[in-house]
Amino acid sequence: MKQESQRAAVRTEIENLETFEKHGESYANADGRHGWRNPIRADTGPILEAITMAQKPQRILEIGTAHGLSALYFIAASEDWDAIEMDTIEFHEEVAAATQERMDHLGVPVRVICGEAGAVIREKLDDSRYDMVFFDAQKSLYHEQLLALIERGLIGPGTVLLADNVTDRQTECQGFLDWFHESALLHRIVPTECGLLVCRLPENFNG
């Protein structure tokens, strides 16, 4: 168990990041590709933390890092930082570097991987299965990213899937949402400000 002072520092940083603009910021990466960073709303972090406390995942993947707010909620809910690994994918180079520096300063087990999420999933992640995956990058690519994770065997029976913005950005997420209905998978959409999908893949899941 990490020292209480480290956990207090994580909580203080969560409070700091919660003060950042919630309605998003535009950006362009080194290749000139534009994006829109939209942080989780204040009602979502505690839910992520509660689900993590209940499920106790050892390997977590986040798609869409931004400044690391949601990642820190996952970390804050984990009992033993020496027993978990968290990978998080960020598209913007400067933000990825700054967030990795933040995580290193706090001493938490978070690896920020810079790149386009689909390419990172296909080429940069190791072959170990994740216990929890949080989708929070470009909404129209949720479905593509999900299929890439399945193809590589990075998710499977027991993996908890979480996805933000499935209500306020439903049109962009529709292919992703349709997959859950077509697969007849039990899932729920928690009525947060943006809508949070929650699903635990069943033991008979085979993709």
Q: Explain this structure to me?
A:
The chain has 207 residues and is an alpha/beta fold. The chain has a single domain (4-200), classed as Vaccinia Virus protein VP39 (Rossmann fold). The chain has seven helices and nine strands; from the N terminus they run αββαβαβαβαβαβαββ. It has helices at residues 4-17, 45-55, 69-76, 93-106, 117-123, 142-151, 170-182, and strands at 25-28, 34-37, 59-63, 85-90, 110-114, 132-135, 160-164, 188-190, 196-200. Strands 5-4-3-6-7-9-8 form a seven-stranded mixed β-sheet. A two-stranded antiparallel ribbon has the order 1-2. α2 runs parallel beside α3. It is globular, with a radius of gyration of 16 Å. The chain starts with a helix and ends in a 7-residue tail after the last strand.
Brief sketch in words of this structure:
The protein has 207 residues and is α/β, with parallel strands linked by helices. Helices cover 37% and strands 20% of the residues. A 7-stranded mixed sheet has the order 5-4-3-6-7-9-8. It has a two-stranded antiparallel ribbon with strand order 1-2.
In helices, the fraction of residues equals: 25-40%
Share in β-strands:
15-25%
Q: How many beta-strand elements? A: 9
State the distance separating the first and last CA atoms.
Answer: 36 Å
How do the SSEs run, as a string of H and E? HEEHEHEHEHEHEHEE
Average pLDDT metric? 92
Q: Structural class of the secondary structure composition?
A: alpha/beta
Low-pLDDT segments, ≥5 res: none
